[in-house]
Amino acid sequence: MTILTKTLGGAAILSALGLATLTTPPTRDAKAQNAATAPELVGKRWFNTPQNQPLTLAARRGKVTVVEFWTFGCSNCRANLPAYARWQKKFAAQDVAIIGVHTPETDYERDPKNVEKFLREQNITYPVVTDESGQNWRRWNQQYWPTVYLIDKVGRVRHQHIGELQGEEASVTKYIETLVKEPAPTAKSPNRRTKVSKITKTDAEWKAELSPAAYNVLRQKGTERPYSNDAKNPQHGVYTCAGCGQELFASDAKFDSGTGWPSFYQPIEADAVEEEVDGKFFMKRTEILCARCEGHLGHVFNDGPAPTGLRYCMNGVALKFEAKE
Ligand SMILES: [Zn+2]
After folding, report:
1. Quick one: CA torsion of 86, 87, 92, 94, rounded to 10 degrees?
2. Half-sphere exposure of residue 167, counting CA atoms within 13 Å on the CB side?
3. Angle (CA) 11 64 161, round 5°
4. Do the bridges between strand 97-102 and strand 128-130 make them parallel or antiparallel, or are there none, so unpaired?
5. Which domains does the chain show, CATH number per domain?
6. Range with lowest mean pLDDT among 19-28, 129-138, 159-168
7. What is the distance in A from the centroid of ligand 1 to the CA of 294?
8. Which of 16, 134, 241, 273 is the 20 to 30 A CA-CA neighbour of 73?
9. 313 an active-site residue?
């Protein structure tokens, strides 16, 4: 493990790592458009969330998030804790979330009981996910404890700070303030990420390759009968689009809504699906489309469970289940 002392300035390290692009001040210019999408957080053991349910960055869409990698045995990580607590308090009204990713170095740090004890003793109340196997660490190409990332409302990494914040807390705080002031994205906003590359086919092609039931839902916005395709899958896995194979929902986000349609509280990534308002006046609903093939999947409603409060009500025939891990 590389412990950074405060004699190493964040900027110097960044340029040494060739990460200088991440120091670009927050603006809505081309550079911001090209900022990297933050990898989704994974891991099942969470502290300080409702019922210890996992949080995802996808569910944070429209809000600013601070992600900090740390481990409680690292003195440089501990030195940053008061700053995180100050941000938590300062930006509470703007719904900025601090999320700690606890990637341990030693077996003692790996024991979740010790993490929990440390959180309690230090009165840390923001969400923390344990990263025992270093899965998040690898997904984020992480190298140093501690590292702080600022994620904008569209889910992009807009700033990275490596090492202790001492002396630079004010400038990072300014970044957060700037990101908070940016407009929240709407479904068709130009700020929208374009990671998903579209596929288009003719109606005849879709008709030839989809089952009649899948064609009716995906291409003609039909609705299947309830209880026709809501199988309970005991395994962990991913629900993909029956039209194009794009990953749409993780099985962990599936819940029993009692409607007879497969229901999820969030998509696997914010940009896996697209939203479109359909209907008029009282009948307005938000339609959910596959972001890749623009196939109709279902609708989203605001009567879902924690942590998002959303219910993605899907047609099972538009989804395929793939068991994973
Ligand atoms: Zn699709």
Report:
1. 150
2. 10
3. 15
4. parallel
5. 10-181 (3.40.30.10), 203-323 (2.170.150.20)
6. 19-28
7. 6
8. 16
9. yes
